[in-house]
Amino acid sequence: MLRRIITLTAIFLVALPSTVFAQGRSFIRDTEIEETLRMYATPIFRAAGLDPNGVSIYIVSDNSLNAFVAGGQKLFINTGLLLKAETPEQVIGVVAHETGHISGGHLSRVHDQLRNASAISILSTIAGVAAGVAAGRSDVGTAAILGGQNVATRNFLAYSRTQESSADQAGVKYLTEAGISSRGMLEFMQTLEGQELLSTASQDPYLRSHPLTVERVDFLENYVSNSSLKDAKVSPDLYERHARMRAKLFAFTNHIQNTMRTYPESDTSIAARYARSIAYYRDSQLEPALEIIEGLIAEEPSNPYFEELKGQILLEFGRARDAIPPLQKSAELSNGAPLIRLLLAHAMIETGDEAYLAPAKENLIGVLSRERGNASAWRFRAIVENRLGNEGEASLSQAEYSLLTGDRQAASYHAVQADRKLEKGTATWVRAQDILQATNPDGVPGKDAAN
């Protein structure tokens, strides 16, 4: 299933270049989940004086409970944490704490550790994450990312007790300024307390890299008990989003039998039905999957993600033409979400109908206008341009794809082809020169490609 999710829709595992790290985890991209996490994090980032658009959030496909910040303003959250967090406030509390590390400048010590070769390797991994997530190499089922069990990584990302306390204090401040209770942060810490007696190997990575002390828990307990917001809850909409996010993640990362046990037929909530639809889809049971999702669409006709899932199901079952209408509606309802428009373009390409090439190109241009580093969009763009007979644009798109996925030799080769086919002096021709310059260390365009 994970291998088959080619376009970035409901749940998509992103593979990083194999040179980044030998062992590791996968990334997940999903418009609905990313939007939910943004809704959680934006008030916290603003309270901390950070530009919400300047902080990147990555979802790591790992069942262990962990979250960390690294490589600047990059926040990583494990699916295990999202699945174990029973309330939105618990996730928001973790985000607030990690934001405390960012605003406290705790990452500055990284520079001191760069003298260590293993630290350099780890930082290189972190630096490669953004490019890898953007690449969208969906032909590979697993990805290279930070190994949560790697000792060097744990040491590199570990914070001191002083920094942890500082992040707690900053976190509760941001939560209060955002009008959110700090109870979620306390509940998360209390969950970690139960792991302190476990062996180090059995503990979740979060506890190993974020040392927990009695003083930290006492501080949070006192803060919450004396806060006017101690019993405050976020909006019911966020609770519903949280339930759906957990259901979606669970169904996409578990066998159908586990999903059906966790979300039995007796549970008629939207989240449970959502999970069962995904479970049937992953088990190649088309009819029950469609029946459930169509029922959900009837209840919430303005929900873009139900339409998205319907389109993805139809596309996966070889019904590309039938997938187009729900995906078009999903794109409209989501204000042109890039990942959804990418899936729509993919469906259009899969029909093999030349009439769909122009609208597919339009959608891909829309994706790239918002996510220029999305390699899957460049790969599909190369296919469309080639079918349209635009050889120069096709070569340039293939060069962009190769550059993003780390194949510098292929990028250079295709940039040379683009240089030959594109009109001199145009913006696309100039971009081909940029790629040639980037892929030829001696500054002689085309030399690598010619050899």
Automatic annotation (TrEMBL):
Its cofactor is Zn(2+). It comes from Thalassospira indica. Residues 34-222 form the Peptidase M48 domain. Pfam families: Peptidase_M48. This is M48 family peptidase. Residues 1-22 form the signal peptide. Keywords: Hydrolase, Metal-binding, Metalloprotease, Protease, Signal, Zinc.
